[in-house]
Write a structure and sequence with these properties.
By secondary structure, the protein is of the alpha/beta class. The chain has helices spanning 4-16, 27-30, 50-53, 56-61, 63-79, 84-98, 113-117, 174-185, 202-211, 238-250, and strands spanning 19-24, 102-107, 123-124, 127-134, 140-142, 161-165, 189-193, 215-220, 232-235. Bound molecules: 2'-O-acetyl adenosine-5-diphosphoribose.
Length: 260
């Protein structure tokens, strides 16, 4: 593999780190069969632009359409399985825990696949499509408590049910941003994986990590705007690169007993 030297260097940095932060985007779920945010969708939803559906204005204007879109999206997310990239990140967390190092996984994904792969304490800065809330009371509930018999879905309080995701024009959950910023401000390795790194504040996370003195690593299938500014850019699919990275870690440092 051409990128072996980069992956090896990344593994060395991680094995020497006290605190590691990972940011993931839609690319990590691509190998599970979920379309990334900026790639064209298949089937009947291909004629819609996600950037125009994922807004509060779109929901207010046409709640039926937006609810149907999210229904389709969570059905698809529940239908697929976590891939080796998700599994490797859960494995990395176990390795770092075993070595008494800090690990924080921040994701822009709303699909719940990291948790299904075994990652814990995941900071979901864009929320989750597996939780829904009432537009009147703000009460949240798991998907399993929401009945999708009519679209849009009425709530008991006389409002509508909407997904607990962050739409364009909405604030990000303050506690998620605080948690992410605190981890980034004190990390010594930062990995940006499978994200186009174009949307703030995620796009700015690398700056916070860099200011903290962290080594910065990118794993992406394609070139991105931040690729030129990181210490190591690893070109490849996360489902291939990450298991390889964890395999190298197995051969280094303490904590390796925690690996499966
Ligand atoms: P994007 O669709 O913008 O970017 C996905 C990135 O993953 C691209 O850079 C792809 O090249 C890369 N990629 C694709 N397959 C990959 C693979 N197998 N391995 C590694 N990389 C791969 O998705 P995000 O960056 O997640 O926000 O988008 C960020 C946010 O923009 C989304 O959360 C969404 C959107 O606006 C909100 O909805 C608020």
């Amino acid at each position: 593999m051409l990128t072996d030297a980069n992956i090896r260097r990344a593994a060395e940095w991680i094995s020497q780190a006290k605190s590691v932060v990972v940011l993931t985007g839609a690319g990590v779920s691509a190998e599970s069969g979920l379309t990334t945010f900026r790639a064209p969708e298949e089937g009947m939803w291909s004629k819609y632009d996600p950037m125009e559906l994922a807004t509060i204005d779109a929901f207010n204007r046409d709640p039926e359409l937006v609810t149907r879109w999210y229904h389709w999206r969570f059905t698809k997310a529940l239908d697929v399985e976590p891939n080796p990239g998700h599994a490797a990140l859960a494995n990395l967390q176990r390795w770092l825990d075993g070595a008494h190092k800090r690990f924080t996984l921040i994701t822009q994904n709303v699909d719940g696949l990291h948790q299904r792969a075994g990652s814990t304490g995941v900071i979901e800065i864009h929320g989750s499509i597996l939780r829904w809330r009432c537009t009147e009371t703000g009460e949240e509930m798991p998907l399993t408590d929401v009945s999708f018999e009519t679209f849009p879905v009425p709530s008991e309080a006389g409002g509508l049910m909407r997904p607990c995701v962050v739409w364009f024009g909405e604030m990000l959950p303050p506690e998620a941003i605080e948690g992410a910023t605190a981890a980034l401000s004190s990390c010594d390795v930062f990995l940006s994986i499978g994200t186009s790194a174009t949307v703030y504040p995620a796009a700015g996370f690398i700056e916070i990590a860099r200011t903290a003195g962290a080594k910065t690593i990118e794993v992406n299938r394609d070139p991105t705007p931040i690729g030129g500014g990181v210490d190591r850019a690893i070109a490849g699919q996360s489902g291939v690169v990450l298991p390889h990275l964890v395999e190298l870690l197995k051969q280094m440092g303490d904590g390796r007993d925690e690996l499966e």
